[in-house]
Amino acid sequence: MEMNKYTRRAFIGGLICMIVIALSTFLLGKLSGYEAKILIKSSLDGINTLCNTIALASATILALLLTLLGLSSTTKSELKKDYYHEVLIIAKLDTTIFIAAVITFLIFNLPITESSNVPNNWFSTLYYISLGISSLLSAGLIVVVLLLYNTVVNIIKIVGLGRKDHPLVRDESNKIEN
């Protein structure tokens, strides 16, 4: 399945999020290990909250996808396979983000800043890694939400507004198509 304009728009939204976070990181400048250690200590609660929020949102989105599939199966219009491929992409991406958020939460709950075995110069690297992971998770969730939005809009047009000429509705004259 090729990427349609809505899917491309969703991925561009995620990319914009990553660029904003990368620019913010660049504006912070280079940190020493000690400064990074202090910033990690102060940002751990925020990172944990972010991971919890993303995990909760991802699990909720998966449940909503089941509802969306139930609604779309009761429609009088027959939907093309492309519609189900879009939902499958959302489900796969959302599950990946859910797993990554939970693993990130577990990793950042390790008391690394309390350890005396970790050299100070590692903390700046760890700090930038934590920013990178946070930006990836945030961007991923933005992509999932934008993809879900597009799917919901399509279902509203097909089921709610009864559009028969929608690109995702199977043509009545050719039932074998997609």
Strand residue content: under 5%
Q: Kindly provide the radius of gyration, computed on alpha-carbon positions and rounded to a whole number of angstroms.
A: 21 Å
Number of strands: 0
In one word, what is the shape?
elongated
User: Residue share in helices?
Assistant: over 70%
Number of helices: 4
Order of helices and strands: HHHH
Query: What does the average pLDDT come to?
Result: 78
Structural class: mainly alpha
Described by strand count, sense and barrel closure, the largest sheet is:
none
Q: Unreliable runs, pLDDT <50, ≥5 residues?
A: none
- Ends apart, CA distance between termini: 11 Å
Describe this structure in words.
The structure is a single chain. The protein is mainly α and 178 residues long. Helices cover 75% and strands 0% of the residues. The model has no long low-confidence stretch (mean pLDDT 78). The longest helix has 41 residues, at 33-73. Helix 3 packs antiparallel against helix 4. The chain is built from four helices and no strands.
Main features:
single chain, 178 residues, 4 helices, 75% helix, 0% strand
SSE diagram, text form:
Elements: H1 5-28, H2 33-73, H3 81-108, H4 121-160
Quick summary:
By secondary structure, this protein is an all-alpha fold. The protein is built from four helices and no strands. The mean pLDDT is 78.
